[in-house]
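Hey L., structure's done. Input below.
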Amino acid sequence: MVTVVETWRLRDEFAGRVLELMQVMDDIVGPEAHVDPGWREHGRFFQNQADPTEVWMIYTWGSRSGHEEFMVGEEKRLAAFYADYCAGPRDITYFTELPVDVD
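Output:
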């Protein structure tokens, strides 16, 4: 399993509509993601306090290779969203969770 962090950067004029636009984005990609065998959980969204146009979406996926394959179709579905609202395409970073004993 892999943890995926997507970094979204909306254009400045949409700073007041971040919640609304992240819901629009999720409505575009969510239905396809939820039926993919790699899907593990709903994403969580975090807005940068220093730059309100930046949002991190964090979730787990079955494997990096499976996610990269899935992303090909997702990028096509997001083309108009990127053009209308974003400063550029999202950045995607993959993480492996470490089993640190925190007790």
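The chain has a mean pLDDT of 96. Strands lie at 2-9, 44-47, 54-61, 91-95.

-- N.
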